[in-house]
């Protein structure tokens, strides 16, 4: 069976004539890879900040820029990257949560402007960087994720207002240094001899920012300094690097152009507050071959949810994707796959291993329109008023105009707004995923819930046998839908360790700031999974 996979490849060559040797082994050792982000949550300086030292320069693990300048109407403090508290001068931030206790401010903090002012070229920039590993030529895609709060004081015209996520390699780490004072940007990656290998640029429209006060998509046009928060993901592939070079992550803010003439005077230009920066992926993917006389032994690092093809060719005259299959549809046996094949007759042979995602099967589905079995609902002990209940039926009066797939769905008080002091749960029947190693939960939802820490939902994975929570899939279900939307999340490893139940839990307090609210509605639940 020929597949056309979305794949990673690694090629190796072996000459069967070497069978006269006792053994020829290409080392399977991983000499390089990602080491991760140091102080990605910026909590290392929290005690110092709380002690009253103010904004900090020289944040643990990071090199950063720092410059002061005075052009035209720009006055005040520096264009800087400094660790500090979450921005307290925006509207109520009660539902932003504790994750923002300590953040990195990246941008033109303290710079004030007048409508129509122009930011000088190359002046409105700031950056942070650190080494996150060393390069191996078999490395796969590197994923960079972080939370961002962004203040966009309306739009710039004729310039940039962006964040960039960059990967660099090479250079001399011993030369890296922070900015040290006025007029000093610090030692940048160019200065230490590094080369940029990959970059993802995000303009405001590229990121799904949400106004944390209203819970709806941020417009950057309603308020002169509208707050916006988002989770940002960038997938980057390093091209052209040499084996063993240091890998650098740099996050870069650019603000250049003319300030919108409708902007409000004395407000700051764009700046970003970053938190919870992590990197993942970058798996070193090498095909290693050992010649044992009559057989060739292949081994490579493998991962759950993948399949592999082994292709071969006596020469390199055609693309590897077109080479004949030596073995196909090989299941993953993480962390290492082993395969033995008879020594080929050709005097030389090239081999390539292809990795692709294993096909997912639908292992559970429920649309709530036929006989519904095994679903149960109830109240936690703290809920004595029973003002809200999970109900199966056809929504009317509030919430969605109909079920996602009519006629039925589950909803919290399906025909009226949810009540105060509620603590209610909805459980699925037992679902056995132990034959699989990866999977995804997907369902349709309509949500109209005030927001954490007042009213919010959670989605958890429970042990079907004991009811004990094995994992929390989503700790903060909140928001305001205008229509049904698709919710999808990968299932955690614990979901495949034993039979499970899904739990949908809603909790409300004794007051609504701007309610009442319709609640939480779910429909068309599907679990897709694949084996190793």
Characterise this structure.
- This protein is mainly β and 532 residues long.
- The protein folds into three domains: 34-281, Galactose-binding domain-like (Jelly Rolls); 288-358; 362-530, Jelly Rolls (Sandwich), CATH 2.60.120.
- Helix content is 2%, strand content 44%.
- The strands form six sheets. Strands 3, 4, 8, 9, 11, 12 and 14 form a seven-stranded antiparallel β-sheet that branches.
- A hairpin with a 5-residue loop joins strand 28 (456-463) and strand 29 (469-477).
- The longest helix has 8 residues, at 46-53.
- It starts with 7 loop residues before the first strand and ends with a strand.
Write a brief structural summary.
By secondary structure, the chain is mainly beta.
Name the overall outline: flat
Radius of gyration: 27 Å
Looking at the structure, the CATH topology of the largest domain is Jelly Rolls
Characterize the biggest β-sheet: 7 strands, antiparallel
Number of strands: 33
Q: How much beta, percentage-wise?
A: 35-45%
Helix/strand/pairing category? mainly beta
**Helix segment tally:** 1
Please identify the top-level CATH class of the largest domain.
Mainly Beta
Query: What do the pLDDT scores average to?
Result: 76
| Poorly predicted runs | 1-6, 15-31, 47-57, 67-101, 152-160, 180-184, 263-269
Helix content: under 10%
Q: How would you name the CATH homologous superfamily of the largest domain?
A: Galactose-binding domain-like
The number of domains:
3
**Proper CATH architecture of the largest domain:** Sandwich
Distance between the termini: 19 Å
């Amino acid at each position: 069976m020929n597949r056309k996979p979305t794949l990673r490849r690694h090629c190796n060559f072996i000459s069967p004539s070497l069978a006269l040797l006792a053994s020829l082994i290409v080392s399977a050792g991983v000499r390089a890879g990602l080491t991760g982000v140091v102080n990605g949550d910026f909590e290392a300086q929290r005690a110092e900040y709380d002690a009253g030292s103010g904004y900090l320069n020289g944040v643990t693990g990071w090199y950063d820029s720092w410059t002061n300048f005075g052009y035209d109407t720009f006055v005040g403090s520096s264009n800087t990257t400094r660790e500090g508290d979450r921005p307290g001068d925006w509207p109520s931030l009660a539902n932003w949560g504790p994750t923002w206790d300590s953040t990195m401010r990246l941008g033109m903090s303290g710079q004030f402007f007048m409508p129509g002012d122009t930011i000088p070229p190359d002046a409105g920039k700031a950056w942070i960087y650190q080494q996150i590993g060393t390069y191996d030529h078999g490395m796969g895609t590197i994923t960079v994720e972080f939370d961002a709060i962004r203040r966009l004081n309306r739009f710039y015209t004729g310039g940039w207002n962006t964040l960039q996520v960059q990967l660099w390699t090479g250079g001399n780490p011993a030369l890296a240094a922070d900015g040290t004072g006025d007029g000093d940007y610090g030692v940048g990656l160019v200065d230490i001899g590094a080369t940029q290998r990959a970059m993802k640029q995000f303009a405001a429209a590229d990121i799904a920012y949400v106004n944390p006060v209203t819970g709806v998509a941020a417009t950057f046009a309603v308020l002169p300094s509208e707050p916006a928060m988002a989770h940002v993901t960038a997938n980057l592939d390093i091209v052209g690097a040499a084996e063993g070079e240091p890998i650098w992550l740099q996050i870069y803010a650019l603000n250049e152009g003319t300030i919108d003439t409708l902007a409000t005077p004395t407000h700051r230009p764009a700046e970003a507050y970053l938190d919870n920066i992590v990197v993942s992926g970058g798996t070193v993917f090498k095909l290693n071959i050992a010649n044992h006389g009559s057989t060739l032994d292949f081994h490579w690092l493998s991962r759950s949810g993948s399949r592999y093809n082994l292709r071969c060719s006596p020469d390199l005259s055609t693309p590897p994707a077109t080479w004949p299959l030596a073995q196909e549809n090989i299941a993953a046996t993480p962390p290492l796959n082993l395969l033995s094949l008879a020594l080929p007759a050709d005097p030389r042979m090239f081999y390539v291993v292809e990795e692709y995602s294993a096909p997912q099967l639908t292992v559970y589905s429920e649309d709530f329109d036929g006989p519904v079995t095994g679903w149960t609902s109830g109240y936690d002990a703290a809920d004595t008023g029973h003002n809200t209940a999970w109900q199966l039926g056809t929504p009317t009066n509030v919430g969605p105009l109909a079920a996602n797939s009519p006629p039925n769905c589950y909803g919290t008080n399906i025909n009226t707004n949810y009540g105060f002091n509620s603590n209610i749960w909805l459980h699925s029947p037992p679902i056995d995923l132990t034959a699989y190693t990866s999977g995804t939960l997907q369902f349709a939802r309509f949500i109209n819930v005030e927001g954490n820490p007042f009213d919010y939902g959670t989605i958890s994975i429970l042990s079907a046998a004991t009811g004990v929570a094995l994992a929390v899939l989503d700790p903060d279900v909140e928001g305001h839908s205008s229509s049904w939307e698709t919710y999808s999340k990968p299932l955690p490893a614990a979901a495949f360790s034993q039979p499970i139940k899904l739990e949908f839990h809603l909790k409300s307090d004794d007051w609504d700031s701007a309610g009442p609210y319709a609640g939480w509605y779910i429909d068309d639940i599907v679990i897709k999974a694949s084996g190793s």
